[in-house]
């Protein structure tokens, strides 16, 4: 059994995304990330470039990167 399956309660992760400049950008990034399995909420803030994701299990960084790329932005890493 892995540590991920032993996790109880939601996991909150903050990512840095470059290129967001407005509410439309926030919506595009939030929309793509919210489609990932296990994600329960996404809050993107263009001003800070931070995207806070609450999920049932820790997310795979590459899956988040692909979602951010699909929205037209670049994942800069974890905050």
TrEMBL record:
Residues 11-76 form the HMA domain. InterPro entries: HMA_dom, HMA_dom_sf. This is Copper-transporting ATPase. Pfam families: HMA. PROSITE patterns: HMA_2 (PS50846). It comes from Streptomyces variegatus. SUPFAM superfamilies: HMA, heavy metal-associated domain. Gene3D superfamilies: 3.30.70.100. One of its GO terms (molecular function) is metal ion binding.
């Amino acid at each position: 059994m892995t540590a991920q399956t032993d996790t109880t309660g939601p996991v909150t992760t903050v990512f840095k995304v470059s290129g967001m400049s407005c509410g439309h950008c926030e919506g595009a990034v939030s929309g793509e990330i919210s489609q990932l399995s296990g994600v329960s909420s996404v809050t993107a803030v263009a001003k800070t470039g931070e995207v806070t994701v609450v999920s049932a299990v820790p997310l795979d960084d590459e899956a988040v990167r692909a979602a951010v790329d699909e929205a037209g932005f670049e994942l800069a890493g974890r905050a």
